[in-house]
Amino acid sequence: MIEKCSIVFAGILRKRSGRKDSAAQMPIKIYDGDLELVLPEEIANYDDYQVVRIKNSHLVAMGIQKDSLAVVVEETIKRGDLVVLTEIQDDSIVCGFCDYFAGIVSISGINSETLLFKTEEVRVVGKIIGVGNSEPARDGKIHIRPIEI
């Protein structure tokens, strides 16, 4: 069964450093208190980000370790996307590969049980576009890498 993820830094990315519109863009940095996340250029083109801590190991085959930080954006969700959902009844968070049909949403991991929800029972938080270790690197920053599905 897929364990729940917990939201870690609600509204984490309110402040962003500005980007220069040049061919040689530096990675974008996002901050919340002492935490500094560095996004590579290919996923730094969104206006708003959220971060969740992955509290399970069902996505290890995708390079997402337990206790990783996942960067989530609002985007149109397609079947098979890696997403974060909120269960409306208790605000718990569920992460995994999304599918939907006939009013049913399914969330699955790799080699794990699939969870089924009625569409009215969940709200899409967003699509996972990047992930990083929860411990900062030697430079004190958390470097986020893009997710490739």
Show the helix and strand layout:
Layout lengths: L3 E4 L7 E2 L11 E5 L2 E5 L10 E4 L15 E5 L8 E6 L5 E9 L2 E5 L6 E4 L3 E11 L9 E2 L1 E2 L3
Parallel strand pairs: 4-12
Antiparallel strand pairs: 1-5, 1-8, 2-3, 3-4, 5-6, 6-11, 7-8, 7-11, 8-9, 9-10, 11-13
- Helicity range of the residues? under 10%
User: How much of the polypeptide forms β-strand, as a percent range?
Assistant: 35-45%
The coarse overall form would be: globular
Note the total helix count. Answer: 0
**What average pLDDT do the residues reach?**
77
Radius of gyration: 15 Å
DSSP strand count: 13
Widest sheet: strand order? 1-5-6-11-7-8
What distance separates the N and C termini?
A: 21 Å
Q: What structural category arises from helix and sheet content?
A: mainly beta
Characterise the protein shown here.
The chain is mainly β. Helices cover 0% and strands 43% of the residues. The strands form 2 sheets. The protein has a 6-stranded antiparallel beta barrel. A 4-stranded mixed sheet has the order 2-3-4-12, with no helix packed on it. It is globular, with a radius of gyration of 15 Å. 29% of the residues are buried. Residues 1-26 have low confidence and may be disordered.
